[in-house]
Write a structure and sequence with these properties.
This protein is α+β, with helices and mostly antiparallel strands. It contains 19 helices and 19 strands. Helix 8 packs across helix 9, helix 11 packs antiparallel against helix 16 and helix 18 packs antiparallel against helix 19. The relative contact order is 0.17.
């Protein structure tokens, strides 16, 4: 794959002009870790002086089963990063599936909290309670300084609002494109079976169902075996949230008759759930999806086991890139002379899910970031990691090892078929806030857009017009009732949905369970959210 790039000299020249010069090099070393919930970098505590090089402790989400920043060049890559940001990093990798539990343990013992903590999703529940108890640094006093933090200071105010608790900005977002969610599918399979979705974006849920049925039952790979399935699915039920929008449901919450309500109070919600139950009962998704881990989610498409992937569109792009990059890949290819391809479709029936403008965030501990010097050091690290050279090294690795320039000045990956080389920088993208915006940071790396990124960006743009925003997001952050048990009740509602789809409970049990959630506190949440909502009308 090809990306238009600029030379390291031009990187540095541009950053010097912008006042973002590289930090002076130090002599401390760092090494990657091969196991989850283990540390990499240098141990020690941050110094009290901004003139000195500090050590920043940081819990980082592990999406790669412990295989992060490992291999022959891992230490060199980490050293380059530390030298550039001017501070040393002590990273603790925490499995994505264990993140909530691990962060709860940190908050229960504030003195052990990393200076920077990584979180998934959006600000809800325990995070709000912890913020109200003073667990996190109020970043309003720091990040808007354009001279010190030229990247962080350009954070969109709408995103900052969703990270603000009682007037305090408690986190740095990991920004995301708003129209990022959608449906991606195997183009070669669809063309062979005649089930392509309309080019004008007018696909209906019935069109998608016909594709899933064909991919499952009509031998799309032509190998004569009944070994394919319509869509991939794991224990992560985000795809169900996307599918719901196709039926007119909101994104978590919706406005109904002038009030904001959770989507499970909409009639359209039950129509959508019946559709998903039909997909499950007819074997168009894995029967054991509730037991499938998320860290190998895209493997089904990559291996040719299934042909539809419903989540972020850039995951569909990466599956497509995998097909294009792997010359030895032959499984489930319709035409052995051509690579498999993916269509990044986006909205169905005029709807898809919107992001909150961010997905995941970083907090600074008020206990371990207890001086201005420590706070500013941590923010300097988060800011500088968004500079072009850091975006390159954390996502593509080292020049001459993981990538090189071709005769036209394009950055060319050279490690796509070498997992050990790619492992040198794997996981380091979890350090990135992508500020001032995902679009801006992408442009810093990709001055030229290849066919994969062009398709992704076109899909983002097309999805944006149909992306359903959660209208209650900023109100939930400042609802004391939601902070107390909203996330738990949301999880209960999601579990009930899964149980009904799988046939573990009846429809009456499903609806009764949702009614019970209301009596356990959700009616109070609805009241508090709408009190704020009406005040803003």
């Amino acid at each position: 794959m090809f990306f238009k790039a600029i030379s390291r000299r031009d990187f540095m020249k541009g950053m010097m002009v912008g006042g973002v010069a590289a930090a002076s090099a130090g002599v401390l070393t760092a090494c990657g870790s091969s196991s989850s919930e283990s540390a990499s970098g240098n141990s020690g505590s941050g110094s009290e002086s901004t003139a000195g090089r500090q050590t920043i402790t940081w819990s980082v989400i592990d999406q790669n089963a412990g295989n992060n920043n490992v291999g022959d060049y891992a230490e060199e890559i980490m050293q380059d990063i530390q030298d550039y940001v001017g501070h040393d990093l002590e990273l603790t990798w925490v499995s994505n599936d264990a993140l909530t539990e691990k962060n709860s343990l940190y908050m229960a013992s504030p003195k052990t909290m990393p200076q920077i903590m990584s979180w998934g999703g959006t600000v809800t529940g325990d995070v709000v309670s912890a913020a109200n108890n003073g667990a996190f640094v109020d970043l309003n006093n720091y990040v808007w300084d354009e001279t010190k933090y030229p990247n962080l200071s350009q954070m969109a105010q709408s995103v900052a609002d969703n990270l603000t608790v009682n007037g305090q900005l408690i986190a740095i977002p990991r920004t995301r494109v708003v129209g990022r969610y959608g449906l991606s599918y195997r183009q070669d399979w669809a063309e062979k079976l005649g089930v392509e979705l309309p080019d004008d974006g007018s696909a209906t849920p019935d069109d998608v169902y016909a594709m899933l049925e064909a991919f499952t039952n009509e031998d799309p790979d032509g190998n004569g075996s009944n070994d394919t399935i319509g869509m991939e699915m794991t224990s992560y039920t985000g795809p169900f949230d996307i599918i719901q929008t196709w039926f007119g449901c909101g994104n978590g919450w919706a406005e109904v008759d002038g009030q904001l309500v959770p989507v499970w109070m909409q009639d359209e919600y039950f129509e959508a759930v019946e559709y998903m139950k039909k997909i499950f009962e007819n074997g168009l998704m894995p029967a054991d999806f509730v037991d499938r881990p998320t860290d190998s989610w895209s493997d089904g498409c990559k291996k040719g086991d299934n042909g539809v992937f419903i989540d972020v569109l850039d995951s569909g792009k990466r599956i497509w890139q995998y097909f294009a990059a792997d010359d030895t890949w032959t499984a489930s290819v319709v035409n052995p002379e051509e690579n498999a391809t993916m269509v990044l479709y986006g909205a169905v029936n005029g709807h898809t899910l919107a992001t909150a403008g961010y997905n995941g965030f970083f907090t600074l501990s008020a206990t371990t970031c207890d001086t201005d010097e420590k706070i500013e050091a941590a923010l300097t690290v988060l800011d500088k990691l968004n500079d072009a050279e850091m975006l390159i090294i954390t996502q593509y690795g080292l020049e001459g090892v993981n990538w090189e320039y071709d005769e036209n000045g394009y950055l060319v990956d050279t490690d796509t078929e070498n997992d050990s080389l790619a492992g040198n920088y794997k996981g380091l993208n979890q350090l990135l806030a992508f500020l001032p915006s995902t679009e801006e940071t992408t442009a810093r790396v990709n001055a030229y857009t290849d066919e994969f990124n062009q398709a992704q960006n076109d899909a983002y743009e097309a999805a944006l017009a149909y992306a359903e925003i959660d209208p209650a997001l900023s109100y939930k952050v400042n609802s004391s009732a939601y902070s107390e048990n909203g996330a738990t009740l949301d999880s209960e509602a999601s579990t009930l949905r899964t149980q009904y789809i799988c046939g573990a409970i009846s429809l009456d049990d499903f609806k009764s369970g949702l009614d019970n959630i209301r009596t356990k506190g959700y009616d109070t949440i609805i009241e508090e959210v709408n009190s704020q909502y009406q005040a803003n009308q």
